[in-house]
Amino acid sequence: MNDLPNHMTEDVYLAFPDRDNLAIEARKLDFFYGKTQALFGVDLPVERNRITALIGPSGCGKSTLLRALNRIYDLYPKQHAVGRILLDGHDVLADRKSLQRLRERDNAADDDTMMRSAVDVAGLRARVGMVFQKPTPFPMSIYDNVAFGVRLYERKSRADLDVLVERSLRRAALWDEVKDKLHTSGLGLSGGQQQRLCVARGIAVEPDVLLLDEPASALDPVSTAKLEETLIELKQDLTIVIVTHNLQQAARISNYTGFMYLGRMMEFSSTADLFATPRGQRTRDYVTGRFG
Amino acid sequence: MNRALFRRLGNYLFVGVCGVATLIALTALVMILWSLVSKGIGGIDLKIFTMTQPAPGSEGGLSNAIVGSLIMCGIGMAIALVVGILAGTWLAEYGGDTTYGQVVRFFNDVLLSAPSILVGLFVYEILVQPFHGFSALAGGVALAFLATPIVTRTTEDILNLQPHALREAGMALGASRAFVIRKIIWKAARAGLVTGGLLGFARISGETAPLLFTSLGNQFFSTNVTQPMATLPTTIFQFALSAYDDWQRLAWVGAMLIAIAVLSINIIGRIVAREARR
User: Fold this and answer.
1) What's the confidence (pLDDT) of residue A5?
2) Topology of domain B48-277, per CATH?
3) Which of A19, A96, B25, B217 shows its CA 20 to 30 Å from the CA of B248?
4) DSSP letters of chain A?
């Protein structure tokens, strides 16, 4: 399996995209579910204020990579990542255990590039929001759903909070549909509305990066179109990484696309290039629908 | 005889046996309820709730036993809800997979079916003998030992039913695990938690054995939890075994009151659970 051709060579990675303008970046990332390795030395550069799509057949590690970026896997004691994840240049995998694993893997001695730093996981998650495959509205009102994350970090006056909730709902293109029932349960909305509620909740804390794990797979075409419009609007203010099974969706909305296969990043380039002139045979087969 | 007919007969036989068994079970239940109501309804009046238990041959009610039952069930449920919900949460969210968690779950399941008289004897050893006296508090603690495993079990089960995605969504916003559990998971599992509490309450409201060694019973009205106190089950036990007709009549009324209370609690629990599922 190690001789799979990897088309994301170092020079491609260095040249593209603009390395000074990365919001978040994974370097040589391995990921383990217990003893099973799911990611093998994955590199992922994510440019600021752009949409980066991850595509690939089921089980290729797209979601795993996404879940590593905000360390949500920390919930499960048996899962761990080895490598580096840089958020604005700060390694979010710099806690003691992760560094020890990295040293063991790379046979590296203690050096200054491996300085241990305290990792504030809650702070990380405030800066890297996430929207899941199935809508996950909390069992509370629409208003409280959106305000939930904000209330974790600061005590705002009712008026300020009202403004923030309205702005978040507007940006998620949900305001007009819910403005008259803000204090009814979020569980009463349709699937598409619930998903946009989750987007509103995610952006209310004003994260730098928003991770979306197949956010449209449970939605009908109209809701999907609305969500896509929302994402394109949102990239003016933040950076988006989206996992999708829908190749047209990746082609429609993303600026960069990474093709993953068997836990490896096979190819990464601008979406136009990846779909028009894929370098690898597998990528070509996948984007033309010959396998996957 | 051909095969199809043989199978059909087999099927009828099976359905028939199941039907008869169901009928037997239901008949017993209906007979119990019927004898309770027919013998208890005649004795029910306002005095039951206003007067304390009488000497044989004179007028009286069950107010001391009713209040005692409420107090002891209250003590029992207060302990059981706090310990049970926290323990169940720990099993579901934190330590359920560890060896210690598995040991806790195993012993909880054992407690779930422990003979209640043993619980009574145990509490007698730790709360009655050392303090040289029966007390309502000891009775409440004994009841808590019976209700806690039920609350723990239902809490764990109901929390395990909550989707992982909900926890992840809360954590993804930067909330701590404990905060997510308190503000989101408990809220989502509200109906199940209420049901667990009601099941626990239904279980302990008719318990007699653990109270005989702990709260003892009291023929007078008392709300002092450090002293012996009457409860419906112990009073029924005492009156039903007596030779006096009026005491026996009161025992029937008490039994009917417990049955009505348990029945209404179960019905309320089901309605709450159904409402919350919507």
Assistant:
1) 47
2) MetI-like fold (1.10.3720)
3) B25
4) -TTS-----HHHHHHSS-GGGEEEEEEEEEEEETTEEEEEEEEEEEETTSEEEEE-STTSSHHHHHHHHTTGGGGSTTEEEEEEEEETTEETT-SHHHHHHHHHHHTPPP-GGG------HHHHHHHEEEE-SS----SSBHHHHHHHHHHHH----HHHHHHHHHHHHHHTT-HHHHTT-TTSBGGGS-HHHHHHHHHHHHHHT--SEEEEESTTTTS-HHHHHHHHHHHHHHTTTSEEEEE-S-HHHHHHH-SEEEEEETTEEEEEEEHHHHHHS-SSHHHHHHHTTS--
